[in-house]
Amino acid sequence: MYLIVAGGGKVGANLARSLIGHGHEVTMVEQRADRFEMLEEEFEHQVQIGDATEVFVLEQAGIARPPDMVIATTGDDEDNIIICQLAREKYGVPKVIARVNDPRNQPHFDLLGISPTVCATLSLLALVEHEVPEHELVHLLELRKENLEIVEVQIDQGSPCVGKSVERIELPAGSQLISVVRNGQAKIADGETTLEAGDQVLAILEPGKTDELKRVLLNKR
Q1: Interatomic CA distance for residues 111 and 138, integer angstroms
Q2: Residues of the domain holding 172
Q3: DSSP character at residue 131
């Protein structure tokens, strides 16, 4: 598989190194001359200097082939948006992945249909919330292309679903329980699974359904 990685910082360089190690063909684009010189010592012809938001730089990197994927990993969200738009709309690259540096910019990526995206801040936040028991509902994963998300719900003693089997719980339309973790052991949730206080329940649902799910499982909004 041939990939272009735009951005030769720590994220881009480590990603390119791993991809090459897995046998993929990679061209990395880095704008800063000092960083390019260091990368060139390791990656040689597989790194190119230039601004990846400029068409002629992308063409020198081989985007007209086109590559199987373009991954925008720069530290500038606006640049990452432009790179992905150029790759997808001008050159017909079938897949793009963008790094989101500031989670406040995620709606801009969503509005332009740039997906999937990776935001380290949001990923770390989800992990922190997962480890903090007072968080009743944690957003674990967003599948934007499929218009779905996966959440974790902590069932407490006062939850109206305690003692009920899954088939007796009137879940919101567009949602489904996936699994239940109890005493450190996970099991797939089926119709006969009975929920208990302390259970950690994974659910998949359409975006915007979290309040309905909390009302059903926790009697809260």
Answers
A1: 24
A2: 123-218
A3: H
Residue 170 burial (CB count, 10 A):
8
> Do 90 and 172 fall within a single domain?
no
Residue 173, both tokens: 């339309």
Kindly tell me if the per-residue pLDDT of 130 is higher than 70. Answer: no
Residue 33 has pLDDT above 80, yes or no: yes
| Amino acid code (one letter) for 10 | K
Which H or E run includes 5?
A: strand 2-6
- DSSP state letter for 199: -
Q: Is 92 found in the same domain as 14?
A: yes
CA angle 47, 48, 54 (to 5 degrees): 140
